[in-house]
Amino acid sequence: MTDLPPYRILSHQIEGLNNVLKTQALAKSYGRIKAVKSLDLEVSEGAVFGILGPNGSGKSTTLSMLLGILTPDAGSFTWFGQAPEPALRKDIGALLEQPNFYPYLSARKNLEIACLIKECSTTRVNTVLEQVGLLPRAESAFKTFSTGMKQRLAIASALLADPKVLVLDEPTNGLDPQGIAEVRELIIAIAERGKTILLASHILDEVEKVCTHVAVIKQGQLLAQGSVLDILRNQHQVELRADDMAALEQALAGYAPAAQRRRDGNLIVLSMIGEPDGTALNRYLFEQGLVLSHLRIHKKRLEESFLEITAKA
Amino acid sequence: MMRLLRIEWNKIQPYRAFRILIGLYLVSFIALPYSMERIPFLQNWQQLFEFPTIWFSYYFGAEFLSFALAIIIITITTNEYSNRTFRQHIIDGLGRNDLVTGKLLLMAVLAAVLMVLFVVNGYIAGMINAFEADYSGAWIKAGYIPGFFLHTVGIMAFSFFLANLFRRTGLAIFAFIAWVFPVELILRGLLVGVAKDGGMISDRLPVAVIYSSNVNLGEMFSNPTAILNLNEFIPSSLGLENTLMKIGWTVVFFGLSWWMIRRRDL
């Protein structure tokens, strides 16, 4: 494993710290449609926690419940170890789905209102506008902004009270490639300052690039939760075939470097712990009296991990 | 409390539709006691615009204008839904109660300011119109002053309720007009026709209470003796029952709005 992104350095600092957020059996239905089914999440301090799932998997619904917009049908959650109450949300900066501002007010006036709500100093307005590169347009009305600028203003608003936690729902939605790169850099920069970030996204690449931890959800159900390394790591895989597949399977059962074994058509696929050694594997099997007709080593791509996890549901 | 008020004021003060509507309303409201006496039909009734009946006349005329207040409240409330700013306020850390309290405070302050204006402007108009410079009886019918305050709060509470119920500006304004003109009138007619004590209920419907002319104007203008004893013909206040009913409906409308905002997914 070369070129480690910066988050890998952070991840070891996270163990054993306090929970910022904990949900217990959180559930929400819209009529007969169950948007979120009994969700248990745990986000520790300093984590960049990704909620990964396809569109309509219940990500926004979950975040809306956590931010007090939706009332859960069942279950409970705590922020900073306390039962939810409005004042706690002042320590949470959030961007949910789309930026919500008064179209006729300037960027500055909109942020000043947010300042009054969050009870923070209005001197922060310039700081955050600068941070997202909107200071030159501070006096323009929100309705004159482009999609990207609106999104950046929403991020500025989320940063306004210098919150402990940042909740971002698809923060790169509707942005151009440059804007996406900027937002991701911003998120990483904020995370490096020790903030906890909760990021919902359907883009795997985004979660992999910025998150330390991830929860994969589909149709409102939690499929997997853990560190990005564990859940979405770039595992090496070995494909094997022999004439006597039953004997091969039996022989592989005792092969220690394989973390996981599954049948895929007429192949056996091994997920390896660490760098696979093709020679050693071949020799091991030969010693068991097996001759391979196929041996291929490849890196499992993230998409495969994701599809593997979501296909199980 | 001041914080919630400041939030509300920051939202509406730069809003052009608010400025225009409140501006038009204030101009009409201030001009009202000076212009009513110029209505040809009322010219023989100069006494209406002198102390102390001026309080009744001003109240009566102002009731018509408060339609503008209804539109203002509906617009600024439904805006919160269409801009999804109620939602954002919650995310930013306001409680659902704060959303209602903020608007309630704004309306209370607006109604209080208008009441002060009502008193000052009414008194000036009364002085100008006074037959002789004797203002000793100026406050005899001052009961219409709190009556005006309660009317303003009531009409705003009703508009706020409709705005929260329909969440769309056009729909809420349409509902307001529809209720004030045909719907309640039809309902009143039906109630009186159907039930024995229908009149009891029909007089207690919201518009009947909030728009409470306690003087039968038709009778007043057709009665030749009315002009001679106008002061006796026009009561000195809207009466205890109407006052309590106004407060009652205001509480009901704010209560229902509060209930909706509390329970709803925003």
Task: Please tag this protein with its features.
A: 313 residues, alpha/beta, 11 helices, 34% helix, elongated, disordered N terminus, B: mainly alpha, 73% helix, globular
Structure, described:
- The complex is a heterodimer of chains A (313) and B (266).
- Chain A is of the alpha/beta class and 313 residues long.
- In chain A, 34% of the residues lie in helices and 28% in strands.
- Chain A has 11 helices and 14 strands.
- Chain A has helices at residues 7-14, 59-66, 107-118, 123-131, 147-159, 177-192, 204-210, 228-232, 245-252, 278-287, 302-312; strands at 19-30, 33-39, 42-44, 48-52, 74-79, 92-95, 165-169, 196-201, 213-218, 221-227, 236-242, 258-264, 267-272, 292-299.
- Chain A has a 6-stranded mixed beta sheet with strand order 6-7-8-4-9-10, sandwiched between helices. In chain A, strands 1, 2, 3 and 5 form a 4-stranded antiparallel beta sheet that branches.
- Chain A is elongated and about 75 Å long.
- The longest helix of chain B has 34 residues, at 96-129.
- Chain B has helices spanning 2-12, 16-35, 54-65, 67-82, 85-92, 96-129, 144-166, 169-194, 198-202, 206-210, 217-222, 230-233, 240-263.
- The mean pLDDT of chain B is 90.
- Chain B is mainly alpha-helical and 266 residues long.
- Classes of the chains: A alpha/beta (313), B mainly alpha (266).
- Chain A binds chain B through residues 64, 67-71, 85-90, 92, 94, 96, 98, 100-105, 109, 112-114, 116-119, 157, and chain B through 3, 6-7, 10-11, 14-16, 79, 83-85, 87-96, 98, 263, 265-266.
